[in-house]
Amino acid sequence: MSTGLKVFAALVIVFSLAASVQAEMIKIGTATYNQADYNLIWDDNNNGNSLVWLDYSAPAAYWGNQMAWAAGLDNDLVYNLDPEYSVLWSESAWRLPCAGNNPSYGCHAATQEMGHLYYDELCLTGGYSSGGVTAPDLSCGPFENLALAGYWTRTEDPIDYGFFVVDAAWAFFTEIYRDVPYYDMGYGFQDIDANGNGFFAVQHNALAVRCGEVEQSPAGSVIPEPATLFLFGMGGIGMAARVVRRRK
């Protein structure tokens, strides 16, 4: 193999390693809730935020009840972090995921926390059964308790019908049945639903998330940053090229 091909192959390997590290979600421990242990999963870059997810799906309930459930979680959890990890919370309480500043209707709504998790971190497919899309394998990543269901976000967005206003909030659906005129299933779907306790109100599941800076102790197996991998790789390539020149 020529020197040029060797350098090109080394660059491909370095950038592949950098990309895989950047996209990885890491289990940093568990939290005991209702006498059972659930994974704490670190998402180091979700729309610019460092998030920790609690891998527990709260059963379907009204939006207000799910908001209160998430906000009170810290009093109900016993943290069991792996020895090499520590978390400095930057938010005072757990919460429902955010749907972003400009939520959009339909699939591929990855500008919000649930959508980013579904599409960018778990690399799941969105679409409709009428187009040949099948139900996603939600166990493909570190999550064990994601369900094929709808999940509330904390983002409110009232629906104004002109003669009356319905309180509503955005929800993200790993699976949803679309009625008239579609009669099919949607996956990775974002929609808005009535979130009060009145006639129009609906119930959805909930996930809890919390912003925090995760640190790994020197004793742990430190995962290098992509930039560090790049510099290390370039240094190695430079040394290899120097050896080749000397041999020539």
Q: State the distance separating the first and last CA atoms.
A: 15 Å
Strand order of the largest sheet: 4-1-2-3-15-5
Largest sheet: 6 strands, antiparallel
Radius of gyration, taken over Cα atoms and rounded to an integer in Å: 22 Å
Question: What's the short story on this structure?
Answer:
With 248 residues, the protein is of the alpha+beta class. It has helices at residues 3-23, 63-71, 113-121, 226-247, and strands spanning 26-33, 36-46, 49-61, 78-81, 85-89, 106-107, 127-128, 150-156, 159-160, 165-166, 168-173, 176-178, 184-187, 189-194, 204-216.
What would you say this structure looks like, in words?
The protein is an alpha+beta fold and 248 residues long. The chain folds into two domains: 1-24 and 223-248; 26-215, no CATH class. Helix content is 25%, strand content 35%. It is built from four helices and 15 strands. The protein has helices at residues 3-23, 63-71, 113-121, 226-247, and strands at residues 26-33, 36-46, 49-61, 78-81, 85-89, 106-107, 127-128, 150-156, 159-160, 165-166, 168-173, 176-178, 184-187, 189-194, 204-216. The strands form four sheets. It has a six-stranded antiparallel beta sheet with strand order 4-1-2-3-15-5. A four-stranded antiparallel beta sheet has the order 6-14-11-8. A hairpin with a 4-residue loop joins strand 9 and strand 10. Helix 1 runs antiparallel to helix 4. It starts with a helix and ends with a helix. Residues 7-23 and 220-232 have low confidence and may be disordered.
